[in-house]
Every structure is written in structure tokens, then in C-alpha cells.
Design goal:
Elements lengths: L7 H24 L7 E5 L4 E4 L4 E3 H14 L16 H9 L3 H14 L3 H17 L2 E2 L8 E4 L5 E3 L6 E2 L3 H18 L4 H13 L3 H20 L1
């Protein structure tokens, strides 16, 4: 989307560079074995990218669903719990995603029949992130909203590489993990154990240097928050 506060020529140049970078990063991720949406066409003139529609749910939506299920003691229905805060993130999710109930149910049935747990998802995700970093790729915005679970085969798909880049710096990989950690602590505090399982799988993939650097990144992050 054009930025009105920028000079048109500068805006077009920046958008072109970002589009090229995103396409390039996604292509390299795919070659490394990380599943991403298939790119069908890139319109450089209008700065548009046409991609495969991933049939599934974001990890963010799925975890919020599980949280709601745990809190209410039942599967999502079309009604709100009487004690439910309508202004909460859960209420927003329910209001916006009720149309997706059947897909959620089907995915849960598939996971149950296959014996798949959140621990299985966490370990698989940890290995995928390790594979991405071993290929000198950084996602740049690794949140649960940019991780999808496919409805058909419950595979993991990474999306939105707009801030992605190529880097061989351990620091960049650690920041990727820290962004994901913040997403879990802020949005899914009840699933912190799942994040730890992601780190365990990542560490087992031979990424111990990154795990050690993550402690430094956390410390800087806490200092920044305390200073304001």
C-alpha cells in the first residue's frame, strides 16, 4: 500500500526492494525444505505477490481456541460464556472466527485420530526454525500469527517473510526466537511450556550457540522494557 507521506518515487523504490527481498527469502526457505505458500505470480509494477491460499489455521488462532476450550470446559459454541469478557482477545477471536468452527473441529478430529499433541507441533516447529536458520535465513517476524497449521495434513507452514533476510549472525537467529518467545508470553501465557519444547527441539538440532545467545537478547529486552 502506497505511503502518502513519502515521495512517490522513493515509495515505489522501497516497495520494489521489499517485494524482491520477500520473494527471494521465501524461495530460499523453500529450497531449504521449509514449507511456505507457493508463489504463483509477482507483479513488480504494482508491488503485488499472488500466492497459494493455505487451508488451515494460524497457530495463534489454534492456541486461543484451546485456551477458550480449557477456560469454558467445552468446545466453542455460538454463545459467549456469561462471565466472559467481551473486550478480551478471546472474545475478539470468537466473534471473528465462528465461521471457521467446522475447520477447527475437523483439525482437532484429525489430530486426535493421529495422536498429535501440542508437544508434537512444538518439536516439529523447533526443527523447522532450526532448518531455516541453518540455511542462513531469518524470518524477522516469527510470531504465532505467521505460523500456520494445514487442515489436511496438519503440516506447518511459515508465512509473511516481509521482514525476512539472509544472515549468518547468531544474534539474528536469537532475536527470531526472542520474538516468538514474546508472542507466547504476551498472547499465550498458558502455553509457555510449548515454547520451551520448541527450544528443546531447536537445541537438539545443533543450535546450542543460538540458545546461549538468546539469554543475552532476553537480558537486553528486559532492560529496554524497564527503561521504557
Amino acid at each position: 500500500m502506497p505511503k502518502k507521506y513519502r515521495h512517490p518515487m522513493l515509495d515505489a523504490e522501497l516497495n520494489t526492494k521489499r517485494l524482491k527481498n520477500e520473494v527471494r527469502t521465501m524461495g530460499r526457505a523453500q529450497k531449504s525444505g521449509v514449507r511456505i505458500p507457493c508463489i504463483y505470480f509477482v507483479d513488480k509494477d504494482n508491488h503485488l505477490m499472488f500466492m497459494e491460499r493455505v487451508d488451515g489455521l494460524t497457530l495463534n488462532s489454534y492456541l486461543i481456541y484451546l485456551e477458550e476450550k480449557t477456560e469454558s470446559g467445552r468446545l466453542i459454541s455460538g454463545e459467549m460464556s456469561k462471565n466472559h469478557d467481551r473486550n478480551s482477545a478471546h472474545a475478539c477471536f470468537l466473534n471473528s472466527a465462528l465461521y471457521d468452527q467446522q475447520r477447527v473441529y475437523k483439525m482437532l478430529e484429525n489430530m486426535t485420530s493421529l495422536g498429535i499433541t501440542t508437544k508434537d507441533i512444538a518439536r516439529k516447529l523447533g526443527l523447522i526454525i532450526a532448518k531455516l536458520h541453518k540455511s542462513s535465513l531469518v524470518h524477522g517476524d516469527l510470531t504465532t500469527s505467521n505460523i500456520m497449521l494445514t487442515a489436511k495434513d496438519l503440516d506447518i507452514v511459515l508465512i509473511d517473510f516481509g521482514l525476512g533476510m539472509t544472515s549468518s549472525q547468531v544474534e539474528c537467529y536469537a532475536v527470531d526466537l526472542y520474538v516468538l518467545e514474546r508472542a507466547f508470553s504476551a498472547t499465550h501465557p498458558g502455553f509457555i511450556e510449548m515454547y520451551q519444547q520448541i527450544l528443546e527441539a531447536y537445541n537438539e538440532a545443533g543450535m546450542k550457540k543460538v540458545i546461549r545467545r538468546l539469554d543475552d537478547v532476553r537480558l537486553r529486552g528486559r532492560k529496554k522494557i524497564s527503561i521504557g
